[in-house]
Amino acid sequence: KRETQLALTWQCPSNIAIVKYWGKRENQIPCNSSLSLTLSNSYTEVKLALQKKETVSPVELDYFFEGQKNEKFSERVAKYMQDNARFFPFLTDYAVRIDSENSFPHSAGIASSASAFGAIALSLYEATYRLENKELDQEFYHVASNLARLGSGSASRSMFANWAEWGKNTLIPGSSDEFAIPVTEIHANFSNMYDAILIVEDEPKKVSSSAGHSLMNNHQYADQRFLQANERTARLAEVLKNGDYAEFIHIAESEALTLHAMMMTSVDYYLLMKPGTLLAIERLLEYRRETGIPVCFTLDAGPNVHVLYPEQYKDKVESFIMNDLQDTYKKVIFDKQGTGPVSVK
Ligand code: PMV
Fold first, then answer.
1. Pick from 191, 341, 195: which is nearest to 256 by CA?
2. Ligand 1 binding pocket includes 18 (Cβ within 6 Å)
3. Is 154 a pocket residue for ligand 1 (Cβ < 6 Å)?
4. How many CB atoms lie within 10 A of CB 111?
């Protein structure tokens, strides 16, 4: 039995996009910029262990998800390591074991690729740093974001606390297609957001997000959509600064519906919303009209509804979710704005 030479652990949170990334080019370059909220309770924990190989050889990976060998994802991760081997020079000398676990229930319908690839990129890249005796610095997170992107686009944004932007945007200094950047000028209104995830359906997605992205390649509305998303990303960065709830709500909800409208209007059209999705949205809009509370919804590429609200309305909105929406979902995961990835010592 080989001895473990280096072991390390990272927890990387998931994120929810307010302006959506939908459509990509070669090499995981996004067709438009996007902006997301980093979550807290929904994260992936990756334990990485390196063992010295007897002979120099290409990638050797043992990948376990929640204690089980997962061949399909293992192949994807091995290919990812191979393709990006220049960032992980130790791969020729060390065999890798990855044990991955999600904090949220399996098949909860939460997109886990952002947190999973975030944690994988952080762990592999920290191994490079450790074997070179380097301390983690700003540059580490910057490159880790690039590496996370190469695994799953949205993972690039999970590297940072609170709000993060990804994708070249002429109105956002420092933005890049290759890595995400933290959005740091935030009004008090948006400094403590909550996200209750209504799990309307917990079956695996019918259409993968890569298949969805590729349907934007010959989508009739693609150019207008990319333009709109870029404008909205810049606008949202302004709104986060000036605290305008009304405009935030407008951007968030229109983005959710536009994402789904793109799916419904692609050449191979499809529909991911379920009756519970629409019921929850309608009741939420009515609740906002009646109470004036700045609560809104967004959707990911699936039927689940993310309900967003600032901390000061937490009790009211959560009792509304429990009492008036409970027949629209199977379970609810209460999450909130988070402080970014954690290296577990
Ligand atoms: O990172 P991917 O390739 O799984 O794409 C995610 C796309 C959305 O979740 C629908 C939107 C986003 O920006 O996160």
1. 195
2. no
3. yes
4. 20
User: Hey, what CATH class is 4-186 in?
Assistant: alpha beta
The residue to mutate among 19, 147, 154, having the most atoms of ligand 1 within 8 angstroms of its beta carbon, is 154
Q: What are the domain boundaries of the chain?
A: 4-186, 192-336
ipTM surpasses cut 0.95: yes
Q: Is the CB of 156 under 6 A from ligand 1?
A: no
pTM (predicted TM-score): 0.96
> For ligand 1, is residue 113 a contact (CB within 6 Å)?
yes
The CATH architecture annotation of domain 192-336 reads 2-Layer Sandwich (3.30)
Block means of pLDDT (10 residues each) for the chain, length 345 residues? 89 98 97 98 97 89 93 92 97 96 78 92 98 95 98 97 98 98 98 97 84 96 98 98 98 98 97 97 98 98 96 98 98 97 96
Ligand 1 atom 9, closest CA? 300
- What HEC string does 208-263 produce? CHHHHHHCCCCCCCHHHHHHHHHHHHHHHHHHHHHCCHHHHHHHHHHHHHHHHHHH
